Amino acid sequence: MRHGILIILLLTSCSPKETRKKIILIDSGINVSSRINPFLCKYGHKSFIEGSSWNEDRHGHGSLMAEVIIQKLDLKEHCIVIVKAAEKGIGSSIKANAYASALRYLASLDFNIILLALEDVSYFYKEPVFVPSSLT
Question: pLDDT class for 119, splitting at 50, 70, 90?
Answer without folding.
Answer: low
